[in-house]
Amino acid sequence: MCRSAPALHAKCYELFDEITNEHNGEVYDTLHLLMQRSFPMHIFTDSPQSIVSGRRGGQMQSGEHISEWFIQLIEKYPDILAQILHLYIKCVVSNPLKAWKTADEKIAIGYAAKYDSILYAKCNKSCADYLLEAVKADDAVGIQTRALDLIERILLQQTEVEWSIFRYDVSKVPREVPLLVEVMRCLNDRTFSVRRKACQVLITALKQGSPMTRKILEESIRFVQFDATNVEILAEPSVEQHELRFVKPDIQQCAYSFEGYEQLEAEVKNLPQMIYERFLEADNGLARTSGIALLERLVLVNPLIIYNTNFVRETSLLAVDRLASVRKAALELMETLLEAYSNCFALICVYCRIWSCLLSDEDVALQKLAIQSFNQTVLKNIQPMDYSNEPKHFMPWRIVSTLTMTQPRAYLQERFAMLLERETIVTPQLIKVIISHLSTSTDTDAWVLLLLLSSRITNNMDALIVSFNELSSYNMKANQVLALQLIICCLSNFSKPALNQLFQRLLEALRKGNIWLGLISSAVNLINQIHHLSDSQGPSAGSDASPNWQLTLLDELTGNIVASAQNFQAEHTRLQCLLGAYTEILVMLPQSVDYRVKEIVFKYLRECTKLKESQFDTDNERMTNWMIVIAGRLCLREHRLANEVSELYQIILTKNDRPQIINTTLIAVNDLGKKHPNILERNFQCILAKMHSKFAMTRVRSFRCVKDVILSGIIKLKGPILISMLAALVDDSAEVAREADAFFIRYKRLHEKTVFVQCLRESPFYLNGQAYQKGVEPIKTRYQSPLKSAKMVKSRRLLYNHIMSTIDENTLLLYFGQLKLLAEKSKDEEFVKSNDALAVIQDQLFIMRRICYLTKGKSKQQGARADGENSDEGEQEAEAPPAAAAAAAGTAVGAAPARGRGRKRVDTEDPQKQLERCLRYVEETHRNLQTVMGPELQHSFDSMCQALAMRFPSLIDFAQPAKFWQKYRSARPTKTKAKRKRRTADEAETEANTDEEEEDAAGTAEGESDSDNELPLERHKSGTPAVGGSSRGQRRNSCDMLVTELIFHPPDW
Fold it and tell me: What is the pLDDT of residue 987?
């Protein structure tokens, strides 16, 4: 008679029960043998799909698996079964069968968790102690990950000791506490696989953990007090009328409901910082996405992480991550958190930074995702003001306001118009709701949002003209500009009577000069657009003649300008408006400038040039600025007038240093120079002089003017111009320094990528007013280098450090070829006796000494990556944008020869061989300078030679003459290291950097300045600068850089 499978299994288990009786032998040995034989069966689930179809008894019933039989024996042999099942757990974690696949191991670990749960409930015995040791296994990643897998299973199921007596043997500290402590410590493991697995365990425990696990984690995260030191705090804007906003919560008083919470406090307190350092800043994209997921779960439990840690800064940096998957995860993180904490200003700031970058992302799918996100987060939350009773209803207006503060409105409008072409998210009902907000406290944001969505608006918009007519107060000027731009974009949505009324009203305002200056350009543009719309819908005129309204308006404006100029004191404000309208109309017509208008403007400027700076007040300064702009507009067409106004601009730049006037003049010169390049060349020395103004605002504007001229190719970057641009890198103003850094990055990308290599060779001479080569005159004698003199030593060194930080190691080592030039210069008595010659030599010695330390550090950093640390290179997604990659490839393959540098030089020589050949020049230079050798110069020589001895010991051991190098060879420090095992990545990194720190310490002991390795841009960063060379130190430390610049000039990370 054939039995079914369940009956057959039951019969087998009856026989096993009989076999395990004591009279058949040692129970432990019997059970050990049965476990050994049945061990491979633990990769089958209760209902294996591969067996069900051909099985007589159908699916496996509850209790059929061999694991159920072992569990039943616990009541009969509790101690013995505890040993057997613990042995099974240890084998699964530390020594699974080699034939098992990953999926098989997962099933076997599931049975291990099942055994552990029963043993803990019935016998108060757990494998937790073993697992705590297993996760610490060094150089055994498999054991660590399997141990974490089993810990995850334990944290997911609720298990308590089912004893009613002997409760004193049951620990009051839940076993989940030490397990969670060790999982959190694994986040800092040196191996990426272990860190990522620990991150997944915590995410799963927070999402699906047992009630006890979730209680422990949520209370620990909620009650911890994070250290807010060095945290960038955003200044929140004032709350608008009736606005509901998420407010920073107070720190909760500790009220733990479990024992052992003190074990978790230190780990939880360090958890956000650990995520920032070990995950968000990791080279591996999977690590960054895992860190984002864990950070999301933590913030959902405790929103104080947003305010009391560097959450804003670290998450903002994800906006320009190399991988599309990370950028997508960052946006989804913000969406989730904004749904939980609606209208939280800090989250809105980060959301806007990330969203703005995705709006023009290289990945088209992310662009579409950005629009969908905007629809979900902004548009769907817009309600009429009467129904706005939740923070999420006010959040859209705060998002729009933040976007307009950080991004150019034209850029946003362009991207919306392009991305909304195939979307149907803009509906007539939505537009009506937005229009209803034009009469509320969110009116400006409503105008902006309508402007962004204007390409998809289909409603009749006549009501907007009524709204525009009501914007007459001073506070509504910004809204008036927005309204005019919106009307231009939606011109076809207005009726003819409404447009005719608006046309007449604006024309009358321009004619009388009764209009705000900022509206003139938009008003003229709108009138012109209405005229063209009228022509396009009417019968063809068949003539290209200028419209009558333009000619009539120009004549009336000319007469009104002359009349107002005669009564200047009373009508100077009206005169400004009339002149602005005149220049706007003039550029539309083939007419010459009226001589009377030109004389009025030029006469005023001539009178202003006679005034001293102290004689300017607010009114005449404002008028002067406007006249400077008007003069430039009047002269755009006529070269003769351009030359005349150029002379006036030159006088203003030379005699005046008031920031507003100078800035306006520089802008006017720059704009005029695009039409007449000779104007720029004529005024360039004056512009260059303003780069050293005492006003930072003037230096910034001057730099931007010079930058535009150089990038456009009008002026070459050489001589005094190059020196001035280099000096801007070490300017005391953070804005000037950042502008200079951005300029050189762009210049190298567009024009000459080796410019800094040449600067490193020549700048020590030119910065100190010396010629680089004999027979070549130094930079113009009338030009004084801003970094010349002993007082500017630190600034020059900051500049050299910045240049060296951008050059690769091989090119830096080639700089030691300058030793030959230094020996030749030291033979020239005329050079040695000249002023600042010793400063040149000391600067070169400083550069060589720093190269020794920099190249040593770079070599160590390249090999100091922790075990198992992976980069993004192995992932599916591309790191760089296709355009950027193509540009990089083009640069590498077919780079244009360097301009103005003679023949192109190809450096193929081994740098160390070159250095070995040039070491003899060190002693020769030292001997040639004996007549002028002072303590300071001798110290510079000693420091450089000591650095060479530490960096290239094998070369210095055989350097000639031996007598000269002997004292440096003997002064080399000897150090021994004890080999120690490291568990965490931080400790491994510390060990990798030990040599560099000791060498820096040796340099300090020699009397060198602690700031010798400082970079100019680091001075302007808030907070403590990161350790040089680490991946964290190369990231931007201030989220204020993440605005428009990230979109139009992405950083080369």
Answer: 58
- C-alpha gyration radius of the chain: 38
Whether 766 contacts 777, CB under 8 Å: no
- Measured from the Cβ of residue 979, the count of other Cβ atoms closer than 10 Å reads 5
Rounded Cα–Cα distance for residues 313 and 331 (Å): 15
d(C-alpha 682, C-alpha 78), whole Å: 99
Residue 989: C-alpha distances to residues 860, 974, 993 (Å):
10, 22, 6
Q: Is 821 helix (H, G, I), strand (E, B) or coil?
A: helix
Is residue 429 predicted with pLDDT exceeding 90?
yes
- Cβ atoms of 643 and 679 within 8 Å: the answer is yes
How much is the average pLDDT of 456-483? Answer: 81
CA distances from 912 to 298, 918, 959, 1041 (A): 52, 10, 13, 40
Q: What is the DSSP string of 519-538?
A: HHHHHHHHHHHHHHHHHHHS
Nearest Cα neighbor of 107 from 146, 50, 68 is: 146
What span, in angstroms and rounded, lies between the C-alpha atoms of 623 and 640?
24
Q: d(Cα 367, Cα 369) in Å, to the nearest integer?
A: 5
d(CA 177, CA 160): 14
**CA quadruple 426, 427, 430, 431: dihedral sign:** positive
Q: What is the pLDDT of residue 965?
A: 86
> How far out from the chain centre does Cα 72 lie?
59
State the Cα–Cα distance between residues 717 and 778, nearest whole angstrom. Answer: 16
Q: Is the pLDDT of residue 15 over 90?
A: no
Q: Token pair for residue 404?
A: 């307009």
10 Å CB burial of residue 510 (0-12, 13-18, 19+) is: buried
Under a CB-based contact definition with an 8 Å cutoff, are residues 451 and 485 in contact?
Answer: yes
Distance CA 232, CA 428 (A): 42
Alpha-carbon span 318 to 334, nearest angstrom: 11
Asked if residues 761 and 804 have their Cβ atoms less than 8 Å apart, the reply is no
**Pure H helices in 302-408:** 304-308, 311-316, 324-340, 345-358, 364-377, 391-406
Residues in the chain: 1053
Assess contact for 351 and 403: CB atoms under 8 A: no
Block residue for tokens 């024009």: 751
- Determine the Cα–Cα distance for residues 856 and 952; give it in Å rounded to an integer: 10
961 SS3 class: coil
Give per-residue pLDDT as tens, 121-179: 788 888 888 888 888 887 788 898 899 989 999 899 888 776 777 877 778 888 889 99
User: What is the spatial distance between Cα 256 and Cα 223, in angstroms, rounded to a whole number?
Assistant: 8
Please state, for a pLDDT cut of 70, what percent of the chain lies above it.
Answer: 82
Rounded Cα–Cα distance for residues 481 and 519 (Å)? 6
> Mean pLDDT across the stretch 823-835?
86
Output the CA torsion 473→476→482→486 (10° steps).
-50
pLDDT in tens, 392-407: 999 999 999 999 988 8
Torsion of CA 746, 751, 755, 756, to 10 degrees: 20
* 665, 659 contact by CB (below 8 A): no
Among positive and negative, which fits the CA dihedral 34, 37, 39, 45? Answer: negative
Q: 389 CB contacts (<8 Å, ≥6 apart)?
A: 244
Query: Does residue 513 contact residue 560 with C-beta atoms inside 8 Å?
Result: yes
Which of 931, 926, 930, 996 has the alpha carbon at shortest distance from 968? 926
Q: What is the pLDDT of residue 78?
A: 79
Which residues, in sequence order, are bridge partners of residue 189? 984
pTM of the predicted structure, to 2 decimals = 0.77
Average pLDDT estimate for 853-861: 63
Helix (H, G, I), strand (E, B) or coil at 1050: coil
Tokens 């297993």 belong to 134
Asked if 63 contacts 112 with a C-beta cutoff of 8 angstroms, the reply is no
Q: What angle do CA 9, 10, 15 make, to 5 degrees?
A: 95
One-letter amino acid at 790 equals A
